[in-house]
Amino acid sequence: MSIPIAIVDCNNFYASCERVFNPKLNGKPIVVLSNNDGMIIARSDEAKALGIPMGEPLFKIKDIAEKNGVHIFSSNYSLYGDMSHRVMTILEQFSPDVEIYSIDEAFLNLDGFQRLDLTEYCRKIRKIVKQWTGIPVSVGVAETKTLAKLANRLAKKDKTNNGVLNLIDRPDIDSFLKRVAVEDVWGVGRQYTKLLNLHNIFTAYDLKNAKDKWIREKMTVMGLRTVFELRGIPCVNFDYTPSPKKAIISSRSFGRSVKEKNEIKEAISFFVTRAAEKMRHQKSAATLLTVFLRTNPFKNTPQYHNGCLVKLSVPTDSTAELIHFAMKGVEQIYRAGFLYYKVGVMLAGLIPYNRAQLPLFDTENRLKMDKITEMMDLINIEMGTGTIFYAATGISRGWKTRAERRTPNYTTDWENLPEIKDFYEAMEE
DNA sequence: TCTGGGGTCCTAGGACCC
DNA sequence: TCTGGGGTCCTAGGACCC
Question: Residues contacting strand B at CB < 7 A?
Answer without folding.
Answer: A 34-36, 38-39, 41, 55, 57-59, 220-222, 245-253, 278, 296, 298-299, 341-342, 344, 401
